[in-house]
Hints:
Layout: E1 7-11, H1 15-27, E2 32-36, H2 44-52, E3 57-58, H3 63-67, H4 74-83, H5 86-95, E4 100-102, E5 107-110, H6 115-128, E6 132-134, E7 141-145, E8 148-153, E9 156-160, E10 162-165, H7 177-180, E11 186-192, E12 194-197, E13 210-218, E14 224-231, E15 235-237, H8 239-247, H9 249-254, E16 258-264, H10 271-284, H11 300-310, H12 322-334, E17 336-341, E18 343-345, E19 351-356, E20 374-376, H13 390-408
Helix pairs in contact: 1-6, 1-13, 2-6, 4-13, 11-12
Amino acid sequence: MPPALLRIAVIxxxxxxxxxxISAKAHRPDAQVLLLxxxxxxxxxxxxxxxxxxxxxxxxxxxxxxxxxxxxGEAFLRKVFVAWGQPQAVAWFTARGVPLKVEKxxxxxxxxxxxxxxxxxxxxxARNADVMLKLHCPVTHLKRHGDGWMLSTPExxxxxxxxVVATGGSPKDDGLAWLxxxxxxxxxxVPSLFTFNLPDDPIRELMGVAAPNVRLRIAxxxxxxxxxxxxxxxxxxxxxxxxxxxxxxxxxxxxxxxxTVLVDWLGDLEEVQARELLSVExxxxxxxxxxxxxxxxxxxxxxxxLIARSGLPPAKPLGxxxxxxxxxxxxxxxxxxxxxxxxxxxxxxxxxxxxVALHQxxxxxxxxxxxxxxxxxxxxxxxxxxxxxxNFQAAxxxxxxxxxxxxxx
Length: 409
């Protein structure tokens, strides 16, 4: 008598879900793999990522270094990336007609600069592997049924031997209650990757101005970040802010998103070095106006704003600045302060910190340690990365291992 057909159901038609379904078929071609998506669109986040270009991954290849870009899940992901990491993801897409290019900041995009290229590759691979695809099919309940699982949907009950959950993060704790009911610890969700609102602050008039390298700190905490900063019509954004919001997601939540941002506009340049540069310039060009000082690499509009903030006349000659004037200017340049009140989601890329606790998941197969035959992938886990392609890399890697684990387990 031939062995029974292995039935694998994947819940969630995003990046992790597609990769899990494809991987399951790759490792068990004779299995019946069903991919279920509750909405009317596949791969919605892939479609809008990177302004419609899709930031597929990051150029970092070494598992340990790559994992440092995840505020939650670093140790877990080191093991995941060793098993199937960035080089494997790049090779996978390249082999399917999606070669990637590296940008200056390390982000990797398809050479087409079009997310449809990535979507077509994933969708085409799933169809070619005979994955059964079903839209408008939310799973309303999941329960153990013998050695397998029973999935309740509006169209009826689906039986499966193995299940991969790739439903993404949930902004509300009750969104993952169905997984808690199965015995899983669920870490409460809080927002990650958000920008800082500065209500009514005059710096917002500089919207569009970017500082190349700043150092940010949150007063009263150990949180800090360095990198580029962008001034927007609502406050502060850019890589330095997004990194700080990700690593400080829970701390800032506990502060009710009301905190003081300390800005060192000179970044890696120490105050003593800045003082020396300004002193040398003042000695060499005593009649040069403060507004034209070249000691600091800042945009002209931002430099003018900071000079005004220090209370110094922009036309003041550098030779007449004096120690007191220099102290006032350097205080603003290296220890500027802004009152943040609230947050704004970063574009359409909604990311949460929280999800199924990692101590209950095997990083090699992504199987639950408390519910055999149930595997997890993507942001439904307590994993989140900073901006730059890291969240998609975690989705590809955990998805591949979850599909493999479901097929071979």
